[in-house]
Amino acid sequence: MALSLDVQIPEHLKTTLELAGYSPETLSREARRTLAAYLYTRNILTLAQAAELADMPVREFIPFLAGMGLPVINYPPDELAHDIESIEWQIQER
After folding, report:
1. Among 27, 25, 32, 28, which residue's Cα sits nearest to residue 17?
2. Torsions phi, psi of 22, nearest 5?
3. Please, is 54 exposed, middle or buried when counting C-beta atoms within 10 Å of its C-beta (0-12, 13-18, 19+)?
């Protein structure tokens, strides 16, 4: 069963959004993609999971993230430090 969210847009914003070219469908698509990007940058979803939520192939989701100024490679600093330590240990063991 899929989770569904309902977003209420105040009536006084409806005309502004319509004049900007937003239909209910485009607002829904944009909200879904923005949520996917947010959850990806928070390390809640993987890149593939976020692309799936955004209803986009990964090859399209990557430029979407970049276009929003968001990092495509989301590698937490503590994981990087751990990986560097592991590599250094392996080099010393040789």
Report:
1. 27
2. -95, 125
3. buried
Distance CA 71, CA 77 (A): 13
User: How many residues belong to the chain?
Assistant: 94
**CA–CA separation, 73 vs 70, rounded Å?**
9
- Could you tell me if residue 64 is left (phi over 0), alpha (psi between -120 and 50 degrees) or otherwise beta? alpha
pLDDT at 83 over 90: no
Which tens digits make up the pLDDT trace of 39-72?
Answer: 999 989 999 999 999 999 999 999 999 999 998 8
pTM value > 0.85: no
Amino acid symbol at 4 = S
Three-state DSSP class for 52? helix
How does DSSP assign 55-83, residue by residue? TS-HHHHHHHHHHTT--SS---HHHHHHH
